Automatic annotation (TrEMBL):
Domain notes: Composed of three domains: the N-terminal N domain, which is responsible for interactions with the ribosome, the central G domain, which binds GTP, and the C-terminal M domain, which binds the RNA and the signal sequence of the RNC.
Positions bound to GTP: 108-115, 191-195, 249-252
Protein name from the UniProt record: Signal recognition particle protein
Cell compartments where the protein resides: Cytoplasm
Catalytic activity, EC: 3.6.5.4
Residues of the full protein shown: 1 to 297 of 450
Organism annotation: Aneurinibacillus thermoaerophilus
Superkingdom, natural source: Bacteria
Amino acid sequence: MAFESLASRLQATFDKLRGKGKVTEEDVTKAMREVRLALLEADVNFKVVKDFVARVKERAVGQEVLKSLTPGQQVIKVVNDELTELMGGGQSKIAVANRPPTVVMMVGLQGAGKTTTTGKLANYLRGKLNRNPLLVACDIYRPAAIKQLEVLGKQLNIPVFSMGEQVSPVEIAQAAIAHAKEQHLDYVLIDTAGRLHIDEALMGELREMKEITKPHEILLVVDAMTGQDAVNVAESFNDQLSITGVVLTKLDGDTKGGAALSVKAVTGTPIKFVGMGEKMDALEPFHPDRMASRILG
Ligand code: GDP
């Protein structure tokens, strides 16, 4: 399970504090040293860990915490609050355009789960938010991506707009947006072309797509299993495209959790959804407070 090692380490640290009638500054320092190591081992970005520990320590050694009736509990509450803040505080919802359709560009590297997530998001929009989405097949480079999206659309009974692989992605997207307006479809989910690595050709194409389609949302799909790499990818995409949200996939695997804890702090962009499996209903809105509670047990 995700976060297993981090959660058990933090829980062991806080079990020691919880029972104490009196907590000294030294106890807090010791606990924070353990927290620091646990976060680093979970692949949380070094600077993020440093800032996090400093913030918690400053709040936790405050007189009102240490002199309270349940100082151990209060320290844990500070950690919980700060973990929640670290992941973005409140829930960040998907954009809604004032005038439909809402255009969403789905971006990411090959294998991250972009096409699967595009299908899942359409399913979520229709099932949970009562919307009528259109799936748009613009990943013309990965041989099976168009077919994959068509299969997902059929399975979900959600329309898929495609023009094969000979037409440029931007033209496909423009035609799809016009089609959505005609058909009164209110979300246009563009499955853009992924690549194995970030390169100028990819970014150039995505920038052009952004300029022309003027998306209300650019969601970057990253694989939680890749840890720090996921955060580096998010940083690069954000520099080039100013993404508006991140979808962290494969959180059902045994990821150490570093990406979930670092993405917002490093890029300033919130995680909006998490992928919890391969099935079409395995997409969940991301709640920082619930995630923090899950980690702290
Ligand atoms: P793309 O190249 O980014 O479009 O990647 P795909 O959508 O084809 O996904 C790559 C693989 O990851 C597929 O086998 C998906 O089923 C799998 N995948 C995607 N999201 C998740 C997830 O949240 N959990 C798990 N376990 N697998 C996922």
